[in-house]
Amino acid sequence: MLEIVKELWAFLRTRKKVWLAPIIVIVVLLGLLLIAAETSVIAPLIYTLF
Fold this sequence. Notes:
By secondary structure, this protein is mostly helical. The chain is 76% helix and 0% strand. The chain crosses the membrane at residues 20-47. Keywords: Membrane, Transmembrane, Transmembrane helix. It holds the Pfam family DUF5989.
C-alpha cells in the first residue's frame, strides 16, 4: 500500500500535478466514510448529509 502512495506521489511530482493530491485524499476519505456508514448505526445520519 505504501509503495502505491510513493509511486503516485512521484508521478504527481514529475508531471507537475501536485495540486491533484488534496482532491485524491478527499475522494478517498469520502469513499471510506461511505463504506463505514453502510455497516454502522450512524448510516441514517450520513445519508441525510448526501
